[in-house]
Amino acid sequence: MTKNIIFAGTLLLALAFSAAPLAAQQLKIATLAPDGSSWMEVLNAAADEVKAQTDGKVVTRFYPGGVMGGSDMVLRRMKLGQLQGGVFTVGELAGVAPETNLYSLPFQFKNASELAQLRDEFDPFILDALHEAGMVAPAITNGGFAYLFSRERIASTDDVSSSLRVWIPENDPLSRRTLERIGASAVPLSLADVYTALQTGTINTFANTMSGAIILQWHTRAKYMLDLPVLMTAGVMAVDRKAFERISPEHRAVWLTVFGEALREQEAQTVNENSDAREALVEQGIEIVEPDRDDVREWQRISNQVLDEMLASGEFEVPGIERLRERLEEIRSQDQ
Q: Can you name the CATH fold of 18-335?
């Protein structure tokens, strides 16, 4: 009798646990995008859609405005389990997967069309590398070209000196070496610290997309924009793979699909925002400076020379760079 009672009690307990609803899985994700920006509107709408499609089982909570710190701090918080993900520029994840450097090399792409023709091949290459390194990302978002904004007028090599204190991302030896070779001063800072550094004068020059400069209010600390596409920008929302895999497979598929579509929607919106931002910058007093063509070619030569030197010495790693350059040559030969 006693054994039967114990067995019955155990069975009822097991049934109770099996019948209990699974607790919601929460993904806490940090981003520098300000609350109320188009980025946050798209991300929050996607989070609501995921929650609805998973019957509340998957909750994605965003921490906007850089309240969780810069990229290095976000990555540390992810390791500690305080966050499950972040929205990064691809270059900020080079320490996780160096393949992410492919889209953020200075003066590699002449126009947006070149990158567009490469993405079917190289987006999966980068996303797979991140996955192998322990991060899951639904898509890569092209943010457009970054331009150089400054307090001092820059049009030629004669305008470049150590008084140009140029922001570079932390852990970016290529940009540091390139700027030093050109004659400017490189100041490494997290993305979250740039605005304060512009206010204090720690830096007086930065590169950003036209819409990004406005969204982050960096343009208010600049007087000039050099009309020269310096590098392509790309972003990625990445979450810790172990945390993500605690979600059921069917709900993981929902999350990847919904956020993948949302990020592609945001990319299309960013194209329009960059187009509108140029006019807005002029209206707000930013002078757009046409650079000297010969000096541009010299800056491009120096940039490629530094990249090749660092690749050859092993100081800088970009898996896939040979294939990328081959494909660019193919594309350019077809356009001739």
A: D-Maltodextrin-Binding Protein; domain 2 (3.40.190)
